[in-house]
Amino acid sequence: MSTDALPATLPALYPILAALPEAARQRLIERARKMQLPPGTPVFDERQSCQGFPFVIDGSIRVVKAAPNGRELPLYRVAPGETCVISSACLLGHTPYNARGITETDTTLLVLPSADFQALLAEPAFRDFVFQLFSERIADLMQLIEEVAFRKLDQRLAALLLGKGQRLHTTHQQLADELGSVREIVSRLLKNFAAQGLVALSREQIEILDPAGLRRVAGG
């Protein structure tokens, strides 16, 4: 990739680049491959080999763990200025992906090939950046494990609704996807919430009527 093709927003999104020696930064610029993907495009899938280290310039990637029955558990999202800890782990361990990444919107990526990623790990600033990423994502994943293991689905649904504002424009399927559940269960819980006067339901819209009541449900 030439310097002219380098997105102008890249240094602002990834300040780590300014801390790299000129030779290392130039290697990244020359070797990174730009990808522009529409929504719903698989970026990687389980058991695929990892081809590179992604920098998200625009859009977002949803990373999920899929079960054989088709259900998915959302793990995290990768937004501009972030990168993917599963990709990092696969590159460091020379192992295939163990999750799936899908674009949520029009997404622009810079993908640094595996060999260049390994070479940049010799630079302390880049190595610190990668391990800081691990620290942050592991904390997020531990919170997710705690949510799934120790909180009932109605508590998690109530907390999810409270985090989206008074009026939500969403479908029951989208909420189920976010919770790693199935639409039928989420619909049943929402109907229970509506019967209690906590929410009002209409087509692809949920209005929160009793935030205090939802907070009590979320708190168990």
TrEMBL record:
Domain HTH crp-type, residue spans: 151-212
Alphabetized Pfam families for the sequence: cNMP_binding (PF00027), HTH_Crp_2 (PF13545)
Keyword field: DNA-binding, Transcription, Transcription regulation
Provenance organism: Zoogloea oryzae
Residue intervals of the Cyclic nucleotide-binding domain: 16-121
Protein name: Crp/Fnr family transcriptional regulator
Keyword Lyase (UniProt): no
Stored SUPFAM superfamilies: cAMP-binding domain-like, Winged helix' DNA-binding domain
Xref: Gene3D superfamilies: Jelly Rolls, Winged helix-like DNA-binding domain superfamily/Winged helix DNA-binding domain
